[in-house]
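Dear support,

We are seeing what looks like truncated structure output for some complexes. This example has three components. We would appreciate it if you could run it in full and send us the complete token output so we can diff it against ours.
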Amino acid sequence: MFLIEAFVYIGTIAFAISGSLLAIKKDLDMFGVLLLGLTTALAGGVIRDLMIGNIPPTNLVDPQYFLVSLLASLATILFHEKFDRFEHGIAFFDAIGLGVFTAVGANAALSLDYSQPFLIVAMGLVTGIGGGVLRDVFVREIPLVFRKEIYGLASIAGSVALIVTYSLLSPVISLYICLVVTLTIRILALKWKWNVPIVHKKPNV
Amino acid sequence: MFLIEAFVYIGTIAFAISGSLLAIKKDLDMFGVLLLGLTTALAGGVIRDLMIGNIPPTNLVDPQYFLVSLLASLATILFHEKFDRFEHGIAFFDAIGLGVFTAVGANAALSLDYSQPFLIVAMGLVTGIGGGVLRDVFVREIPLVFRKEIYGLASIAGSVALIVTYSLLSPVISLYICLVVTLTIRILALKWKWNVPIVHKKPNV
Amino acid sequence: MFLIEAFVYIGTIAFAISGSLLAIKKDLDMFGVLLLGLTTALAGGVIRDLMIGNIPPTNLVDPQYFLVSLLASLATILFHEKFDRFEHGIAFFDAIGLGVFTAVGANAALSLDYSQPFLIVAMGLVTGIGGGVLRDVFVREIPLVFRKEIYGLASIAGSVALIVTYSLLSPVISLYICLVVTLTIRILALKWKWNVPIVHKKPNV
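Here is the complete output from our reference environment:
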């Protein structure tokens, strides 16, 4: 599990940076930048824990995720101009975050003996996108996951892969498969600008 | 309880359609349309379950509500132009949804031996309007329940009717009374355009 | 604890007034004004209770907080023009609300034997700002705590003071110290217009 733990930190850092960068773009004050970074990094796991009864939520008890998020947000305040130039790099880390948070979230539902497939997929999705949804709502954006690019779909595909391989292979291997499937779909979608089609509203005749 | 169950499906379908129609109007992509339909249909029950400790929430465990919402959202993508012409029909189904979700929510608080009247009314309201509130927040609208028409008031009146009749009559009958009271007030408000007055802010002299 | 209880009512009233005033400014209808007042006054405690497993949340069970909030919101509808002239007075009551809700929230985490410092600070912050964050999200404002003035920082300083003094002095005294620290910082920030600096986004060269 050591490798997964390392990926969790990468995802936490990427999510904290994405929240802090958006906060800076929206002219929030420094406290707002730190708070939005923390919210983006920690909220997905908190919402998942509320839904599966893991009380109090791990992200609010174990201080290491908070500390890593805080450091990442502080670094964003100091170096945000340089971070802008690494937009693609951050999108790549964000994809790692989506993948690993999906894997950890789906696995949390599974390991608590909740074997309902819909719940597992929902917990993967909530953990993966929850922080980003709150981030966008707090600065009055329609959440990214509703708007464009293969984002939520990548998470769902990863959780389905985890469910399929969980009993066939070992649980740890299925975690990595979930991460790799989510990450691969997300990266390919970014690279080739895959988008889900928009249902254009035609005027009534 | 069979009839109530049938009403729950009607309400779930109506709420999924209302979320999907709004998503299409806001030019969300197809995934966003499905996700907003699901959120509108399922979130009220999820929030209520979090508040009364029904973990994990029924709407995330029993797949039938998810499947019904998904089918209703897919149908909305295919036939949304036709649905537009049935705006009044959808408002009618939505009123059924408000009524039945209020009844189910208030009853869930009651049947878990929480006999506090305010909690019962609050759980009816949260279940009835929660999905719609999230739907509106996610597309940057002020939630409908804050803005116009007798909506939340209909839910509150229904829950009060349920509390009053619960011990006098049988629990099942009080469920139907709650549904009928909420539905009737909501339909009459739509038909005669009842609105709660606005407190206009007068300029300071 | 009698004095703390009195402060809780003052805070509840101040938060209900702040929600109702904002709702009137945004032209919500009377039901919306009452609902936003109630949400602002009660939601912080509800979210905290969900996170520490105090189910169902106290604010939804004990009717006195609901009744006090309802009366304060009704009074706001009747006298909002006069309340406008007392803007500074309301900001002062709001500061009491922030202080006492922070103290009560941090103390709730501590007294449930959750001795993790980050959780205690987070529960103080969530209880103190949660209602205001929902209030602002529901009327499409970026939540105040992200935007300006020493608000969240005052709450954090108060919780830290509570943690430091909790084992040194008596729990009750540390509650008052938390309240006084939060209140003092918040009032001084208002009086001297202290703000956290904004991280201005410089254009890329």
